[in-house]
Amino acid sequence: MLNVAQEGSRLSVETACASIEWDAARGGQITGFAVEDGLMRRPLLPEGRLWPDLRFELAGGKVLALADSVAQVEVTREMPGRIAFRTSAVLGEGLLRVDQEFEAFEEGAVFCEMVVQLQEGRDMELCNAAMELPVEVRSANNVRWGHYSREPWNKYDPSCIHVFSINHLYLTPGETAEGRELFPLASIDLGWEGVRFFSNHLEFLLEDWTALGGGPREQTRSRAGMNEGHWRLRWDLFEGPARRLAHSYRYRNRWGLLFGCPRTRAGAEADPALRNNVIGARIAHCMYPYVRESAEWPWAVMPIKQTIYQDAQHFMGFPELERVDEVAEAGANMMILHQFWMSNPGSNGEPPADYKPADPKWLRAFVDRCHERGMRVAPYIRGTEMYCYYSSFFEDFFQKDWDGMYMDWTSPLAQGWIKSSMLHFSAYNYFMFMRALRGKVGEGGFLIGHTGNHAFINACHLDVCLAGEFSVMHEVLLADPQACAYYALLSGSGGHLLGGDTKDRKIFASPRAMAFCAALGMTSHSFLSPGKPFSETGAYMFPLWRALRPLSGPPVRLYNPSIMQTPAVQCDQVGFFPVAYQAADGQVLITVTNLGETADGTVEVNFAELGLPASSKLKPLKAEGLCDCRADGPRLRIAGLPSVSLCAALIG
User: Fold this and answer.
1) Distance CA 233, CA 235 (A)
2) Tens-place pLDDT, residues 585-598
3) Which domains, from first to last, does the chain contain?
4) Could you say which DSSP state residue 187 is in?
5) Tell me: the pLDDT tens digits for 368-400?
């Protein structure tokens, strides 16, 4: 959904998760912004304030504010789900012109290419140029924020170095950050009364680290944190001794505003800002070894031993077709094919992956067998290699609007990938790449992204964002449900928990991992490995799978009070986490998971909110791995539910 309206000097854009207003009378800047929390809109732009509130301080103390100028506004392009418009304003009696090229998208993004031009024949002494973005957070119950730096962080493994931007995440409102640089990204997660954790995500991006005026980068600064009652991000595009600008000086940068909310709808007709076609999926990850050795390039640079936790992953052959039947009989309805399917699986561009099947005959037979058993299939691709978009593997072997892709390393913030460096990261370019991939799999297809980083620019086109790529997050994810909800980006995407049974991932193949998935409405992927029965490697997820299987069809809607305002299902026990899944025919599955100590509790179900008649009945499910509960009208009475256990009931 993208609704556009113009009235007088104002232009407004409404998406499924936010509304934005620009005012030509205030320099063409954003004068209104509110997010959808599930039941109501929450204003986040403080009254009377602006985004980005661009200001210039000149020698002698004179201040030129973009807000004091009237801008010319021109809509330049309208497409389904997307609008572009230009604003142009002149400041200081013809001294400066500020042009802003805005582009807004229904998925939850606004990008602005900003150009500051000194008019011909004019000059000035610049002391400071700044953008300031305040956010109203005082009405929020939960606030966490974070930011990325342009300084590198090196992630070592025995084969190579992966260079990422340093990040500081899950910060409290009282914490602040400051640096002599222009932070590439800062974000804030918000939850309101009635939401256990976070229901909205807001993100500010700045692509280039260049000082306005052409001075050294050290004459820039970023500051973020609480200030004067608001959370505030300030980018000083220039801060230092006065600098003379002349000769039609021109400065360009691109900034972005991204905003997300939980992905709680499924299906080709679901709004892109809310769509999660992986809700309740039961996923097997066919994790067969993939390294093929040779003395010739590109094989000669293939990392043979990737981590200290794994032996060399030498190719051992393709899985037999019978393995599809094995996981289907266990209840799986989605299959991920790891990178062994490729003729060269690559390693994040060095060497580059080859998106041609190593054995086309096997791939076609395996995918066909999955389809015959009702499973959707996702081949592994690398989010660092945009050229994969031009390969035909998906069209040749997979089904649009049904199958999907499993993307590893989906981030524009990894230095050396996607043109990223300390000076620049390609936020808009990456956004458009992911948008193109969504078009490739179709509105009914799906994208699972293995991002590793908490950033909506990584995930705004994904159905689910897979958390836990970096080992530094492993202990946090399953220690505290609020931290898990934050790092899984449930405030802007669907959640998917890391899988695997290597030494560093044992906890993610455990009953606790299953319980966190069930409690927060997330998915995970159990490994299908050579020589290991799936009944063993996938067993930890089977209690949740057994709860989901009786539902009359794939869930098309999720009700989860941990991440959204919903009266559909509520609980009086703080350690209990109720979630409701609804199928297309209206049938509802209720799961209740205990992440605390053994306890009793009552879950209230609002039949009317679920679109069900008042005469509906709750039917507790009996299955291996599920605990008992008792129906009492529109309530589930639960006695002595053990920790990391769940019970379930059907309605309709």
Assistant:
1) 7
2) 999 999 999 999 99
3) 3-258 (2.70.98.10), 283-549 (3.20.20.70), 558-651 (2.60.40.1180)
4) E
5) 999 999 999 999 999 889 999 999 999 999 999
